[in-house]
Amino acid sequence: MIAFKNGILSDKKTVLLWLACLVMLPAFAQQKKNTVLDGIIVKLDNQIILRSELEINYAQTLASGQATNIPDLKCEILRSLVMNKLMLARAEADSVVVPDEQVKGELDRRMAYFVAQIGSEQKLEEYYGKTIKQLKDELAKQVRDQLVMQKMQDNITGRISVTPNEVAKYYSKIPKDSLPYFSTEVEVGQIVKIGKPSRKNRDEARARLEALKKRIEAGEDFATLARQYSEDPGSAAEGGTLGFFKKKELVPEYEAAALKLEPGKLSHIVESQFGFHLIQLIERRGEEFNTRHILIKPAASEIDLAETARELAKLRAGIVKDSISFAKAAKDNSDDRETKNNGGLFANPKDGSSYIPLDKINPAVFFIIDTMTVGQISQPMPYRTDDGKEAQRIIYLKSKTPPHQANLKDDYQKISAAALAEKRNKALDDWFEKNRGSVFMEVNPDFVNCNLLQMPN
Asked: By C-alpha distance, which of 12, 157, 10, 138 is closest to 70?
């Protein structure tokens, strides 16, 4: 049964499934600090579940505070792990795979999260006594398995949708005394314009990279200089190495220059949307190629940012005069990829809707909208993007919903998401029921009472 909990959609099965497969820093740290009596407790064909895997997920679930009222919680988690392993076993049988570049991208994203949590790459390496590359190598199989499970789950539930009648029917089944009370929620949008560096600053960035190229041609090591000077946070620690990519997976300017090179040779200075690159081809392998690069990003000056602010002010004036909607202006002009295709609106990370509890809004945004009225758009203001680029942005307060008990009119998105989750869980139940007999399973005697071939409630 899916229920609302503390104003947030809570789907017990989905929460457990996600907790069972998500690699997060706390669990990673726990693996380092805790010594758990390990061993295989469940085997499904070629897939295994270790006792340590169960214990880490159990501790993580308790720490989250989201599932402490579930009877036999450890069995519930183990059943979710069994479902994960069943998906992996069926994926192997059905030849379901994910591309290497997708695994690499997810590894880079998670490592960036770990680094942000602990403070720096150096601190992360010191904490675990391993290099970033070693940590990525250890996580690679877990990340690949998670992406395969996600693909399997998408294959099972991805095309499922709900109609308005189904949403209304779902809502009617919720006891009135179980409807949650929502705190104040807001819809907030932004349009971001990154400052365009002047010709002078671009020339200076190019000159810095030309100087590094001469040092490499004189005999200095490319990877060493990449670690020291490259401004690409995803590859600098790896000596600039990007790994193998296929054609059309990198920006066109970079790819065109890289494919002209022989192994070990250097490119000319290449400009892309990210800045200036010096590229070295490491290896070709069929249709794939592996390169390293040094990236230098030209910075926008105060004069450049002032011009960006003027452009954004003109755009704001057009929105205020109703000559263009905020959503279209964001789609056509914003440099923020996460919001531009969502009408410029921030998304609630819990359920993907545009309604965000006021106390969960980013503090910097909160202090801007705190004095705004609904429908108001701020003047352009300085902003630094997540990747460190200087920019300007305007903030739009689209709506502000007062505290209230859940109802179809004000909370249709949330109720629709809950109805959809229930329908998708039913599809997962049916899939599990259909496929549970397709694998051979051995269970440690300590866990036979968990009835592992039954779906979690």
From this structure: 12
Residue identified by tokens 């440690």 is 444
Quote the tokens at residue 88.
């992996």
290-305: average pLDDT:
92
Q: Which residue has the tokens 């942000």?
A: 116
Q: What six digits make up the tokens of 45?
A: 């064909």
Q: How far apart are CA 107 and CA 140, in angstroms?
A: 7
46 vs 85: CA distance, rounded Å: 9
Q: Please, are residues 456 and 70 in contact by the beta-carbon 8 Å criterion?
A: no
Assigned CATH class of 3-173+409-450: mainly alpha
**In contact, 86 and 439? CB cutoff 8 Å:** yes
Helix, strand, coil tally for the chain in percent (to 5): 50, 20, 30
Each residue's pLDDT tens digit, 131-164: 888 888 888 988 999 999 999 999 999 999 999 9
Q: Do domains 184-196+301-402 and 199-296 have the same CATH topology?
A: yes
Is there a contact between 201 and 299 (Cβ–Cβ < 8 Å)?
Answer: yes
C-alpha to C-alpha distance for 302 and 231, rounded to whole angstroms: 21
Question: What top-level class would CATH report for the domain 199-296?
Answer: alpha beta
Q: What does the pLDDT look like over 161-178, one tens digit per residue? A: 999 999 999 999 999 988
Please tell me the predicted confidence (pLDDT) of residue 14: 40
Q: What is the pLDDT of residue 9?
A: 36
Q: Quote the CA–CA distance of 44 and 46 in Å, as a whole number.
A: 6
With bands split at pLDDT 50, 70 and 90, how would you rate the model's confidence at 52? confident
442 vs 440: CA distance, rounded Å:
7
- Please state which architecture CATH assigns to domain 184-196+301-402: Roll (3.10)
